[in-house]
């Protein structure tokens, strides 16, 4: 019954921007901190950004700090990731999940490809 549906990915040139969305259902979304993760080919999944349940605290991986912004709309059960100044190294499949108690089953993710 729990669903996390990522969307908004695509192909973008270096320096471009994308906004990802994660629509959540099947649990009390506003009670949980959420995170964005990404996984590039041949690499392990890594934490990209974190946001507390009410949105008052955020944290970012050093590699994206200053370029990405995580936010959430609890009324819409949705968490967002605004990605600016994209680099080829950002190419990956992006996923969302609960931060401190992640679900074992991950969604399909959304592909972000940064290429010239």
Textual characterization of the structure:
The protein is mainly beta. The protein is built from no helices and ten strands. The chain has strands at 3-7, 10-12, 18-25, 34-39, 46-51, 58-60, 68-73, 78-83, 92-98, 110-114. The strands form two sheets. It has a six-stranded mixed beta sheet, with no helix packed on it. β5 (46-51) and β6 form a beta hairpin. The relative contact order is 0.32.
Q: What would a concise description of this structure say?
A:
The protein is an all-beta fold and 116 residues long. The protein has strands spanning 3-7, 10-12, 18-25, 34-39, 46-51, 58-60, 68-73, 78-83, 92-98, 110-114.
Q: What does the average pLDDT come to? A: 97
Q: From the alpha-carbon coordinates, what is the Rg to the nearest angstrom?
A: 13 Å
Shape: globular
Q: List low-pLDDT spans.
A: none
Which strand order do you get reading across the main beta sheet?
A: 2-10-9-4-5-6
This entry's quaternary arrangement is single chain
Q: Give the ordered list of helices and strands.
A: EEEEEEEEEE
Percent of residues in helices comes to: under 10%
Kindly report how far apart the N and C termini lie: 40 Å
E-strand count: 10
Sheet of most strands: 6 strands, mixed
Question: Strand share of the residues?
Answer: over 45%
Number of helices: 0
Which structural class do the helices and strands define?
A: mainly beta
